[in-house]
Every structure is written in structure tokens, then in C-alpha cells.
């Protein structure tokens, strides 16, 4: 099920990365680059919801799609964070927390799957909330201007990305706490 509509939508999040990064190299006014990158991020991030919905609705779920979906999300978020650090709109410490957690939890999930304990680190609501806050913070920081004339997206984005970093650390602790008993029981 490599070329189903849901899987193709998932691939668009990966394809989006060079497009979003490339916007910031175009000879356009900064406000235009910010707006284009923001709209692109929002549209591509929305495919996360759409691919899952369509996979269930069209009965096109697959192991490959289940693997690729979170990978695409992580690529999109991590690449956007690196752009934001480069633009000095996000703190490098925030990026390290978020990217480091994604690497650590991905490795943990793979290891837990190898020892037959993947259910102990299955996706939890805390992880979904973390992802939602990240997906709201990033477009605010990409836009970096006034929305509706009075919402300073730069300020709100900074607060939200720090909240995302806190939720990211908290979710990592949660998953580690869930994994430790399984690890202890199998290492003995």
C-alpha cells in the first residue's frame, strides 16, 4: 500500500521540507517569505489529520503508512525548528529538547518493539497534545508578525514553543517511566 492516497499525503510532509526551507532563500520581502512559509506549513501539517482520516475511511491502513506517518511529522517539525533557530526566532535549547526527545523516543520505541514490549510506549494523549502545541507554535514563529492587526505571533510563538518544549520533556519522562519496568524485567 505504498501508493495509496493516505500514504501520498504523508509523503507530502517530507517533500514539503525543502520547499519550506527554500522559501527563505527566495528574493522576496521578508513578510512575504514568512507568509508563504506559514501557509505551506499549515497546509502540509494538515495532511497529518487528512492521511489518518482517509486511511481509516477508505480502509487503506498499512504497516508502511503507520511507520511513515510519525516519521514525516518528526521531519517536518525538526526541519522547521532548524529554520526557526537559523532565523533566530526559536532558542537552540528548545530545538535540542524537541529534536533530542524525538530521536530518543524513536530509538526507545524501536528497542521496545524488538523485545516485544511496544505497547508500553504506545502513543499517549500527552504526546498528541505536545504535537498539537508544536504544530501551533511553529506557524506563529514562521509568520513572525501581527495577525489580525493585534496578535503578535512572534511573542505567542515563543511562549507556545517553550510550552511545547516542556510538554516534550514531560512526555519523554512519561514514556521512559512506562518502559523502565519492561526493560528491567527483560534485562535480568
UniProtKB/TrEMBL annotation:
It is a multi-pass membrane protein. Pathway: Phospholipid metabolism; phosphatidylglycerol biosynthesis; phosphatidylglycerol from CDP-diacylglycerol: step 1/2. One of its GO terms (cellular component) is membrane. The chain crosses the membrane at residues 6-28, 35-54, 155-176. It holds the Pfam family CDP-OH_P_transf. It catalyses: a CDP-1,2-diacyl-sn-glycerol + sn-glycerol 3-phosphate = a 1,2-diacyl-sn-glycero-3-phospho-(1'-sn-glycero-3'-phosphate) + CMP + H(+). Its main location: membrane. GO terms for molecular function: CDP-diacylglycerol-glycerol-3-phosphate 3-phosphatidyltransferase activity. InterPro entries: CDP-alcohol_PTase-I, CDP-OH_P_trans, CDP-OH_PTrfase_TM_dom, CDP_ALCOHOL_P_TRANSF_CS, Phosphatidylglycerol_P_synth. Its EC number is 2.7.8.5. Signal peptide: none annotated. It is found in: Membrane. The keyword Magnesium does not apply. Keywords: Lipid biosynthesis, Lipid metabolism, Membrane, Phospholipid biosynthesis, Phospholipid metabolism, Transferase, Transmembrane, Transmembrane helix. One of its GO terms (biological process) is glycerophospholipid biosynthetic process. Belongs to the CDP-alcohol phosphatidyltransferase class-I family. This is CDP-diacylglycerol--glycerol-3-phosphate 3-phosphatidyltransferase. It comes from Paracidovorax wautersii. The gene is pgsA.
